[in-house]
Amino acid sequence: MTTAPTPVPAPAAVDNNGGAGTPGTAPASQAAPTATRRGRRSGNRAWLGALPLMVFFAIGFGLPAIAIAIGAFTTSSDAPGGGGTFTLSNLTSSLHGAYFTALLGSVKLSALTALIGTVVGLPLAQAVATSRFRMVREAVLSGSGVLANFGGVPLAFMFVATLGNAGEVTTSLGLKKYGWSLYTFDGLAVVYLYFLIPLMIITITPALEGLRVQWREAAANNGATNFQYWRYVALPVLLPSLLGGYVLLFGASFAAYATAEAMVGSSIPLISMQIGDALSGNVLVGQGNLALALGLDMIVVAGLVMAVYLPLQRRSAKWLS
Q1: Do residues 245 and 118 make contact, with C-beta atoms less than 8 angstroms apart?
Q2: What is the pTM of this model?
Q3: Closest by CA position to 113, among listed 189, 185, 182, 187
Q4: CA 70 to CA 156: how far, in whole Å?
Q5: Count of domains in the chain?
Q6: Where does residue 259 rank: exposed (0-12), middle (13-18), buried (19+ CB within 10 A)?
Q7: Which of 24, 39, 43, 79 could be disulfide-bonded to 75 (CB atoms 3.0-4.6 Å)?
Q8: In a domain, 276, yes or no
Q9: Has residue 266 been placed in a domain?
């Protein structure tokens, strides 16, 4: 008499992790959506970390910007018909006469100083990035960080004491014989470069450090000269960062106020000086909100600057990251 063979149990299903499936363990087809949902919940909560910054930005910039925009399009309290009435006269006045001249003066000064700061700052930053002495490199970068934020009345006093009409350097070198005057457009540009060039150094140095050594070696192996390497390899890669640095310098120069006010006052037409005069009441009756219209003009220019700066930074980071 023969007996029937004992049935052999089928092997357990193997999951995607290579282990045997066990009762109570979710299959891979169910684990993946679970992980996806967890990732989505984590991503949805990630913005909470930026909430304090968003609140600070809304209070420190958003509310004042809204108040400026509302005031720029309404009449002031000293207007003949009363305040709070919608009008375009503030913006119209801000773009005519002396105010428009001041706006052009600020744009001209900012464009010139930003260009010089970019051209001078690039080779200095390259010297810092390629320095073999770490202490020198760190000292230059630290000093640049300090000088980039050095401005206002102390900076004006320093230049008056050295390059003013009775300054030490002016009298020692007899600069007045050559037509030098600190209280002119050119003199103000020199003062602005004192903090713009360090700002360019600390801005462009990370981009210079991102240039691959292999790129220079590959160019040298193919017979390229140093000029050809910079012309066809380095500068095209650095161009977004250079333009971004130029835009940043333009914005810093455009918004500067205290240094110019302490040095030249209203003798050099600048939009920031005009805003200061308007806020102090140096306007015609009924133009109390003209300063807000001038401020709105500056916000528009700064917004256009940042609209150019941010895409350039993203494009540069794609190559240098």
Answers
A1: yes
A2: 0.76
A3: 189
A4: 35
A5: 1
A6: buried
A7: 79
A8: yes
A9: yes
Contact 193, 113 (CB under 8 A): yes
Is 221 inside any structural domain? yes
H/E stretch holding 51 reads helix 51-57
For residue 34, what are its two tokens? 């679970």
How many residues would you count in the chain? 321
Residue 74, beta-bridge partner list: 86
CA atoms 26, 29, 30, 35: torsion sign: positive
Q: What is the CATH number of the domain that holds 280?
A: 1.10.3720.10
User: Buried b / exposed e across 36-60, counting CB within 10 Å, b at 16+?
Assistant: eeeeeeeeeeeeeeeeeeeeeeeee
Q: Which residues share a beta bridge with 133?
A: none
Q: Tell me the helix, strand and coil percentages in the chain, rounded to 5.
A: 70, 0, 25
Q: Would you say 309 and 317 are in contact if contact means Cβ atoms under 8 Å apart?
A: no
- 247: alpha, beta or left? (left if phi > 0; alpha if psi -120 to 50): alpha
- Between CA 69 and CA 57 the distance in angstroms is 17
Q: Which amino acid is at 20?
A: A
From CA 122, how far away is CA 137, in angstroms rounded? 15
Exposure on the CB side of residue 146, measured as CA atoms within 13 A: 5
What is the domain extent for residue 262? Answer: 98-318
**Is 299 within the bounds of a domain?**
yes
As given in the structure block, the two tokens for residue 3 are: 């007996």
